[in-house]
Amino acid sequence: MRSVAGIGLRSPHLAQMVRERPATGFLEIHAENYLLSSPALAAVEDLRRDYPLSVHAVGLSLGSAEGLDAAHLERVVGLVKRLQPAFVSEHLSWSRSGGRYLNDLLPLPYTEETLSVVADNVDRLQQALGRQVSLENPSCYLAFGHSTLSEPEFLSELVDRTGCGLLLDANNIHVTAHNLRLDPQDWLRTLPGTAITQYHLAGHAVNDADGEPILIDDHGSRVSDVVWRLFAASIAQFGPRPTLVEWDTDIPPLPVLLEEAASAEQALQDGRQHGARAA
Length: 279
Known about the structure:
Layout: E1 5-8, H1 11-20, E2 27-30, H2 39-47, E3 53-56, H3 70-83, E4 87-91, E5 94-97, E6 100-106, H4 112-129, E7 134-136, H5 151-162, E8 165-169, H6 170-180, H7 184-189, E9 196-201, E10 205-209, E11 212-216, H8 225-238, E12 243-245, H9 254-278
Helix pairs in contact: 1-2, 4-5, 8-9
């Protein structure tokens, strides 16, 4: 896929997208919303004629020590084979334990033991799909005291061990860096840039925690100025990639989301022009 900007396809916009076919670079769906045959899945298949697709899973729980749920994996594999998307991605997180699913993307300690667990699960997923999967960096609110690797080091090791791609979420980098008192530029410097397949952009909320501001990755607002700047820095360092704008809470009218994607498209274009001048 070309390095264009697209939008996360959410149910309030589905009928309008089918009806109007507005210009945008590609569409991303959450896999778990389309695992069963339904009118919504039929609509996505219809949109597939005009838009490249990306499938973003949220429930495979790649950090689970008990491994992947075979039934859930089979359903995701079936969806991917049916839609033949340009990209498949998941999160560096866990959400399942003892057969119970938790409605959250939970953090992991960055240790050799965790790395082995996640790598095994990523290998199994990629083998089942017969294709590369990209892993998204999470938003972090607390750090594990017994982590022995930084998050970029952990992601780099995953790439080396599994051949997976990286989905670089600029908003998540900003949220993590703010909450854990990190330098986002240092965070970026140690990533294997050639493994980055996509960028994500979203909004965040600012909450109060005992007098200290904490950032919450709620995907409920426009992309902030500081995240736009971090996105531009990522493009300057790694080059343009297909870029998605996500909006999952307080979902606005479709034109607002398309406007955000147009801003991302302009940033990608600016990055291409800057790269051409530098060359």
